[in-house]
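Why do we care about 3D structure at all? Because function follows from shape, and shape follows, mostly, from sequence. That is the central idea of this module. The next example makes it concrete: a single protein chain, its amino acid sequence, and then its structure expressed as tokens.
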Amino acid sequence: SSGKYIYYSILGTMVSFCFALLLFPDNPGLFSVFFLTIFLAPFVIKEINLNILLVGRTTQVEHKGVTITKFKVKENKKFYLADFYEENKKIMSMYFFFFLGIMLVVIALIVFMPIDYSAHLFSQQGWESTLMPTREIGFEGVSKGAVFFDIFKNNFSVMVVCFIVSLVFPLGALLMIVWNAMYWAVAFTQYAVFYS
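And the structure:
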């Protein structure tokens, strides 16, 4: 099941932060992204290789509650979006669960850690120390909702591109997904905890 990937991403995120803090205490946020990408890469490579082996050659047949994998020779060479989704849905769900697991860990760290530690750990991932500790600093004359929507729109478009690119260049997209998950979690949590 693809749900196991959320556990891998939670474990990998915690381990990557520990290694980054131990090995690179001056810049742990940036190095945690690289460590986490390296940690998750074998899972992506394994799933991509399995997908390449089986793409277009298997069909799930369900009868009376029993699911059987039927092997076949791919006859049709035409591209269909429905077939593309069916062939890649495990990879897309894996990336989604990685994204979700990373966000959960980062949100928990920000919520439960002191502000100074959060500012140090996430300084490279969108933490805005200039906006601390009051709500008014940095938003003078600007609607907070407009700033939030602009950040959301930009990051959502990056996430969509990451998922599309990940089907062709899986490890580069994994790095982008890890970075974007951390950035979203930092930006949204900081906004929700301190400015809403």
